[in-house]
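Structure in, sequence out. Go:
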C-alpha cells in the first residue's frame, strides 16, 4: 500500500483472479482508486479483499458505470 492519498473514482469487475485467490474474487465489483502512474504502466489500483489498496494488471478488470444512487450502497458494502 502506498502512503499517498487516493480518491475512489470508479468501479470495475474482476474478470481474472488467477494468481491472487486471497486478494481478488472473480466477478466481484471493486472500487478503483485514481492513480495516473499505475495507469501509465497498464495497472489499476483497487481496494482488494484485504481492505487495502493494491496494484493489479488492468486487464484483470472491466470498468463499469454505477448510477449515482447505487454508489452509496457499494461504498457501505466494501
Amino acid at each position: 500500500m502506498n502512503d499517498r492519498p487516493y480518491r475512489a473514482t470508479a468501479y470495475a469487475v474482476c474478470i481474472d483472479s488467477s494468481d491472487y485467490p486471497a486478494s481478488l474474487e472473480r466477478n466481484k465489483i471493486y472500487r478503483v482508486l485514481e492513480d495516473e502512474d499505475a495507469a501509465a504502466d497498464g495497472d489499476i489500483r483497487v481496494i482488494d479483499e484485504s481492505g487495502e489498496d493494491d496494484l493489479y494488471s488492468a486487464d484483470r478488470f472491466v470498468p463499469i458505470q454505477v448510477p449515482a444512487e447505487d454508489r452509496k450502497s457499494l461504498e457501505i458494502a466494501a
